[in-house]
Amino acid sequence: MFLREKIFAGRGEIKADLVLENCRIVNVNTKEITKGDIAISSGFIAGAGDVDELKGDRTKVLDIKNAHVCPGLIDGHVHFESSMVTLTQFVKQSLLHGTTGMVIDMHEIANILGVKGIKLVLNEAKTLPVDVFLMLPSCVPSSPLETSGAKLGLKELKKFLDTKNVLGLGEVMDYPSVLRGDPEKLHMIEAALERKLVVDGHCPGMRGKQLFGYMSAGISSDHESVTYEEALEKARLGMKIILREGSAAKCLTDFIPKLLHDGISLENFFLATDDKNPADLIKGHMDVLVREAIRLGIDPVESISMATINTARHYRIDGLVGSISIGRRANLLILDDLQTFRIKMCIIRGEMKKEIKEIEYPQYVFRTVRYKKIHPGDLKLMSGKKSASAHVIEIMPGRLVTGKSIEELKTDDGAVLPDIDRDILAIAVIERHGKTGSIGRGFVRGFGLKEGAAGQSIAHDAHNIVLIGSNFDDMALCANRIRELQGGIVAAKDGVMSSLQLPFAGILSTESAHEVDKKLKEMHGLIRKMGCNLDAPFMQMSFLSLPVIPSLKITDKGLVDVEAIRIIEPVF
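The structure assignment produced for this chain is given below.
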């Protein structure tokens, strides 16, 4: 009957609940601004333009005095877990900044909790007033070169493929499996495509015939282009390009001026944050990206389109959200100013205020860190020489890709030592799911510590324990404190100095973004005193264990040469 009611509301036989008068409507369908009113009934747009016949005695009328009205913003690809808060807390904050919809890829929680994690997030999403769409995690684990808490194949994912608000398969990071025609991976993709669902990509640096093969699998988007030229090649071949501006990885400043210079149509580009730390989430969400796109020279209406209708069309949800169109959900932003994109009011599903309730989580999510007590010797690499050659991971600030080098390091009693003067620190990854107890060991440059150590249970994507330090004693202290906390971030120097507890699956706090940010700022201040000058040190640290982004990474199984897709000896 609801469809019948929508028809009658459009005809004026059922009167509107709310009418916004004197609007300058940002029409992302035609890329123009039109004047008129907007009628809303039962949370949907019933009319736009001349809507006098849709008003009734009980219709609430709001004169917005010639302000611009645009569709609510949609984050086209986000891991809410990177903000270290639950989905509910993430929505509480992002809604303040005009985000009324988001496409989440929850492979962080899925790597830890598996099917139970997917069900948990789907149920939580139902309690929220915003539109939460889910891309099923396609790579759990992301690679066979790491140990995750769960494994998800077609059998596990099939039960979710027909679930409401599931839009398809999330970023297919395990591109080697696609390119070699692995039956399990291809069956997973085929199952999604047969249902007319979307399959998102993840293929940094991929070009030429490898890209042809990857796209031939039906993978239709990418957010990992390392260079503009790579992104343009993918767009020309038919991929939708997600322009990402998160806390660690950013491309707008580099890509947008070049797109404008080359006169490239932007209809196949859309915006996403991917990963936001709590401090950046508090400052803004998708509104920040729209403002940045405008600042870089994209027309405001086009910029808004890249955060609304372009996203909705890619995910085939434009019949529900993404524009101010008849029959679409009444998710609207009233702006103070179009050019600076200042948001005055957010209307969500036809209402100006929506309560977001706290929910109670099951106890199993708080007991996921399982490994034995760590001793300093557990973290050392041994060599029989006075000095050893070592492969060193080279951090590139603000980027997820890493470089690599070979350096000579001294030894002491057979243990290969970090070299603080050359900013070469020890790094280790401890398997934390209670499966193997394995530890990967290596060296990293670019983190900058002059003393002490830092560790965390956020380590994409398997979320094992990652440690970086100037010495092995402090690294062991960090590891053991994380174990006691059942997840978190820890800094140590001759003893534990500070910590942020993240007990939900070992990666999230149940507190607000503001509370997490307050503690995280303390941690940032401390680690900077210890010598680290990275803008987002803990987020940068978390990606050093992701074995699907070039070029040298480390997991619990060892040092990974990503291009060669194999474990290599860290010292020789």
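Interim note for the steering committee: The radius of gyration is 25 Å. The first helix runs from residue 2 to 11.
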